[in-house]
Amino acid sequence: MLRNGLEPWHLLVVAVVVVLVFGSKKLPDTARALGKSMRILKSEAKAMKEDGAAGGTVSEAQTPVTTAPADPPATAY
């Protein structure tokens, strides 16, 4: 059914639709934001892999710190 699903003219149609939807002035900013997001995602995925390869233990910096609720101020009557 989808024997030739992505032909060159399909990509051209998609590019024209993207330009029409976003406008040519916003495309560089959109591409820059997408690239920045991809870099962040890649670095976070790499960090998760390194944490998993380290033995799977939770370090002190990752443990949540719980504090007891503060006592309400005492009022004298």
What can be said about this structure in brief?
By secondary structure, the chain is mostly helical. It has a domain at 24-52.
Write up what this structure looks like.
The chain has helices at 8-22, 27-53. It is an all-alpha fold and 77 residues long. The chain has a domain at 24-52. The chain is elongated, with a radius of gyration of 26 Å. The termini are far apart.
Radius of gyration: 26 Å
| Residue share in β-strands | under 5%
Separation, N- and C-terminal Cα atoms: 84 Å
Uncertain regions spanning at least 5 consecutive residues: none
Structural class comes to mainly alpha
Query: How many runs of DSSP E, i.e. beta strands?
Result: 0
Biggest sheet overview: none
Q: Which percent bin holds the helix content?
A: 40-55%
Q: How confident overall, as mean pLDDT?
A: 78
Element-level helix/strand string? HH
Please state the overall shape, judged from the principal axes of the Cα atoms.
elongated
What's the total helix number? 2
Write the layout of secondary structure elements.
Elements: H1 8-22, H2 27-53
What descriptors fit this protein?
2 helices, 77 residues, mainly alpha
